[in-house]
Amino acid sequence: MSGKKAREERREQRLQNETQADSQERRQRLIRVGSAVAFLAIAAVAVLIVVSQNQSGGGDTNLEDTSAVNRELAGIPQSEMTLGDPKAKVTLFEYGDLQCPVCKTFAEEVLPDVIDSKVRSGEAKLEFRNYTIINEESVPAGAAAIAAGKQGRGWDFVELFYRNQGEEASGYVTDEFLTGIAKSAGVKDIAKWNKDRKSQPVLNEVSKTTTEAPELGFNGTPSFAVSGPGVTGVHPLGSSGSAAELEEAIEEAG
After folding, report:
1. Which terminus of the chain, N or C, has fewer Cβ atoms within 10 Å?
2. 238 CB contacts (<8 Å, ≥6 apart)?
3. Per residue in 135-165, pLDDT tens?
4. Domain spanning 60-253 has what CATH number?
5. What is the pTM of this model?
6. Is 141 exposed, middle or buried (0-12, 13-18, 19+ CB in 10 A)?
7. Which residues is 235 bridged to in the sheet?
8. Tens digits of per-residue pLDDT, 58-99?
9. Strand order of the sheet with strand 82-83?
């Protein structure tokens, strides 16, 4: 075999080897890219699942809702768990459980009209009373609201809790969640609030109003009652279905 022919054969073999090597490297590169894409896809699905769970489960504080609550309650006096002019002749009582989804609906869709038409005008005041019927998580939630009320932010706490309410009895009512609501509600002294919400007098208040509700004939939340010069004692209204019904009851009690 001539030297020239041998060189050509060696050159051809080298090209073949290089071609095979390039092909193998491209395959490995594609595998690496494909794995990365698959990983990102799995990660994206995981994120969507977490987001979906958070949206359905709730229990997260929402600063936009803080602004909405501030606007709704702006300029209205608060004392303990009472919203409105303390001199108002009529008192509308709400017996509610902060975990109750129907209470949440009332807080967002019914009570704002009553607050605007009757409470803001000074015709009536609105008092929240705990009726803890969902599960044991409702007790510390109710106590935390009362403790916020001791710093003049009771109704801010109640309204913010409802707007950030999680799935009932799901375990979302943690110290972290309650503290987030308290801070967003404008509670200034968190150390005092923590002490108050765990105190026996505050826990006794939750128990007292919970016992009181069935004595008025209530067996669900929210339930309402009214007192004023036009009625005798505390007059139970039951589970009113509309703002108009509550407004009419306030007018009759006055």
Report:
1. N
2. 217, 218, 223, 224
3. 999 999 999 999 999 999 999 999 999 999 9
4. 3.40.30.10
5. 0.76
6. buried
7. 226
8. 555 555 588 889 889 999 999 999 999 999 999 999 999 999
9. 78-79, 82-83, 124-130, 90-96, 223-227, 235-238
